[in-house]
Amino acid sequence: MMIMSPFFLELDSDVKKAKAILHDIVATSNYVFLKKPVKLLLTEENLGGRPVLRLLVKCYVLDVQYEKALETEIFEKANPAHRAAGISRPKISFIPSDLKNTREARA
């Protein structure tokens, strides 16, 4: 079974370094089926009204019972590794539309 884990990064992030970190994490996981390819796909998207990079990790898990364990492991290891490498996640602040409408109704 394939899993896909998205990581959102600032536009000025070192993409090569971010991809290398993610590839190393996935390639060394005990949950990954390495006979299938590990893919890292990069796109630019709009998140919270601003452009960001989306780095998508696509890999296969050994068994469906390890799916969530693999996703968790990727995020637990990637977030501190990216921070240590100076790769920052986007800081997005927004008010959900239903909350915004509630605040406007009170005013």
Blueprint of the fold:
Elements: E1 2-9, H1 15-27, E2 39-47, E3 50-60, H2 67-84, H3 97-106
Antiparallel strand pairs: 1-3, 2-3
Helix pairs in contact: 1-2
Q: What percentage of amino acids are in beta strands? A: 25-35%
Proportion of residues in helical segments: 25-40%
Level-1 CATH class name:
Alpha Beta
Q: Helical element count?
A: 3
In which order are the strands of the major sheet placed?
1-3-2
Q: Give the radius of gyration.
A: 17 Å
Q: Structural class, from secondary structure content? A: alpha+beta
Order of helices and strands: EHEEHH
Major beta sheet, specifics? 3 strands, antiparallel
Architecture per CATH nomenclature, i.e. the level-2 architecture: 2-Layer Sandwich
Spans with pLDDT under 50 lasting ≥5 residues?
Answer: none
Might you state the CATH topology name?
A: Alpha-Beta Plaits
Shape: globular
N-end to C-end Cα span: 50 Å
The tally of strands reads 3
How does this model look, in words?
With 107 residues, the chain is of the alpha+beta class. It has one domain (2-106): 2-Layer Sandwich (Alpha-Beta Plaits), CATH 3.30.70.100. It has three helices and three strands; from the N terminus they run βαββαα. It has helices at 15-27, 67-84, 97-106, and strands at 2-9, 39-47, 50-60. It has a three-stranded antiparallel β-sheet with strand order 1-3-2. Helix 1 runs antiparallel to helix 2. The model has no long low-confidence stretch (mean pLDDT 89).
